[in-house]
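Bumping with the actual sequence this time:
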Amino acid sequence: MKKQLPLFVATLATLFITLAASAQGEWKWAHYWSGTDGLSNAYYNTITNTAFDEDGNFYVYGSMGGTPVYDGINLQFVNNAQVLNNGERSILLAKFDTSGNMLWYKVVKSSAEMAYPLWMEVRDNKVHIAGNCAFYGSYSDDWLYYLDTLVYKYELNNIPEEQQELPFKPYHRWTFFAQLDLDGNLLEDHFVETYSRDSHFNGIDSIRRNMPLCMPAISPVHIGNDGSVFVYTFIQYKGYEDQPYTIVVDGDSNKTYNLYLPGNANASIEINII
């Protein structure tokens, strides 16, 4: 995966290279897109990747820390000051037209530091994105904002666990794979969780750990010719020999895969998600 660059610097550099107006080197347009500056979250401001569609529209996918800022103005992605000003990382996807106008943007953000953009691609008139997130806080008012929907954990407290669904399922971490149309409407999404084997440290047993499928910077994603999504991931396979490493797609028992691998070893696997 390409090395991430500071988000506002990479955006300006990309727009300058691709959208120069003439041979004289005049800029046609340029914008900057960043997050709150500060030691606590400035390193969240990165670009994961960019893409163009057939009409020349420009897509940017990355992350920001703190309050997202576009040309010096806060992005109001939800009418809630707590979400807007939360100092943790957020995942942002934005589309610009050929004149530099921002057409729309989408956000994945939580009250915990759990949002990691992994990959974006424009193909067959769809925008494909992947990332990690979690509804994994420890307080009743923790929340998750997922592609235009905001849910608080206290709203789910009275719903039986078996009726809670991803991504709004407290105490879960996952890798999401989503498809949007070119207008930003969500077409399809899938959530993949993994569960480690039981393990013990210093003689104390622990429960199976719930984790995302992909790890940032080491899990490439690929779309097959038929639209299938493949990932190449890296797992820490440590625990008892007679217990599997389990992959669950969309919380569906019919899409559950148990892997038995030898020893306390690291393993790289490639699986078809969709």
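The tokens above came from a reply further down the thread. The radius of gyration is 20 Å.
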